[in-house]
Design a protein that fits this description.
seven-stranded antiparallel β-sheet
């Protein structure tokens, strides 16, 4: 069980001068942090609370809140706090790493929503962490996406969690407590009267999974009827993460076109493809203001054959078809630049969908077929 005795459960240790914390921060995107320790430690924090009563099989997590209008995010890095008594270095543990999306609260109970990733289940791995540190782990290769669930109360909540699989400290056990364990940002010793300070241990922030109970709000959790905060737990887990937009709206040229009598047609995106908006693409160098926009789901194969397909045999020397032919729309303009648009439904399932595009521009007399091909572009629906 999580709770045994006061001595086992929450011990505050001022860090010794020899202890060190790994530098944090994100090279790009968003840095998520709810603890009060320095975001990028340049000097040692004055103290943390090591929760010695966390047992093998139990989990620590932080719930982060996304604004309702924030794009869906991809988790690129996570940070696991692992500390030892008196800031001692050299103690190790093996942790599972889990991500939940759509988290909500009902008193001390936590509805974890959807488990979107588990390192042991999805990659058959675990993380080795050491004391005394904020241990970093690169997750960019796993495509962990959060924020796809509907907002509750104006926010969308996701949780970054670490489960203790094995604690290698030689003198610890679940029954007696572990001198090396997860730590919070709390630097205040327990004092009378024994009441949970919401400024130190806010609700709906830190969560714990207690053997035999499940997930609980650490600020409200109880064991055998006794509330853990502040005697057995205090502070905010020093769990952090980095994220970036999971599905950025993009429009990128990937293959050249062939010239008309006034120049090679070019696709120029005016409005990127995003959920709920009208994507707009302009086409330049249209000699008679007439053309066709071809949109497909592949740049590898089409009903006419593998791509790119040489169109010389069809009377278009030097031209190549570079996209499949699922959708063909007319383009009409009174100048030499045409415009094409597509209304993209506001459906989350479309996020990250990729399509390919190329225009055929009419130019009678230019060649046997009477026209030329624009460059080709790949685009991805974002939000």
């Amino acid at each position: 069980m999580l709770a045994r005795t006061l001595a086992q459960l929450a011990v505050l240790f001022a860090l010794s001068p020899s202890a060190s914390l790994v530098a944090q921060g994100c090279t790009s995107g968003t840095f998520w942090q709810r603890d009060t320790l320095p975001a990028i430690p340049t000097a040692l924090p004055t103290g943390v609370s090591i929760i010695q009563g966390m047992c093998e099989g139990e989990s620590a997590g932080i719930v982060f809140e996304m604004p309702a209008n924030m794009p869906v995010q991809k988790i690129t890095k996570v940070v696991a706090p692992w500390g030892a008594a008196f800031g001692a270095n050299g103690f190790f543990a093996a942790l599972d790493f889990e991500v939940y999306d759509g988290v909500s609260f009902s008193g001390q109970n936590v509805n974890m929503g959807q488990l979107v990733f588990s390192l042991t289940q999805n990659a058959n791995q675990n993380i080795q962490v050491s004391s005394h540190a904020l241990n970093e782990f690169d997750t960019s290769v796993y495509n962990i996406v959060v924020g796809t669930q509907p907002p509750i109360g104006g926010v969308r909540r996701f949780a970054i969690c670490f489960r203790m699989d094995l604690n290698f400290h030689p003198s610890g056990s679940c029954a007696t407590g572990w001198p090396a364990n997860f730590f919070t940002d709390n630097s205040q010793p327990v004092s009378f009267p024994f009441t949970c300070n919401p400024n130190i241990t806010p609700t709906q922030t830190s969560i714990i999974q207690i053997l035999g109970q499940g997930w609980r709000d650490a600020a409200l959790a109880t064991v055998t009827g006794i509330q853990l905060c502040p005697l057995y737990y205090s502070g905010v887990w020093a769990i952090r993460c980095c994220s970036e937009d999971a599905f950025p709206a993009t429009y990128t040229s990937y293959g050249p076109g062939c010239p008309t009598s006034i120049g090679t047609p070019q696709l120029i995106n005016a409005v990127l493809p995003r959920l709920g908006v009208a994507m707009i693409t302009n086409v330049t160098n249209m000699p008679i203001g007439l053309g066709l926009m071809i949109t497909g789901v592949s740049n590898q194969s089409s009903t006419l054959g593998f791509l790119p397909l040489d169109l010389t045999g069809l009377g278009l020397p030097g031209c190549f078809l570079r996209t499949s032919l699922e959708l063909t729309d007319g383009i009409l303009t009174f100048g030499t630049t045409g415009s094409w648009s597509l209304n993209i439904p506001n459906q989350v399932a479309l996020l990250g969908s990729q399509f390919y595009q190329q225009a055929f521009v009419f130019d009678p007399g230019l060649n046997a077929f009477g026209g030329a091909m624009s460059d080709a572009a790949e685009w991805q629906i974002g939000n």
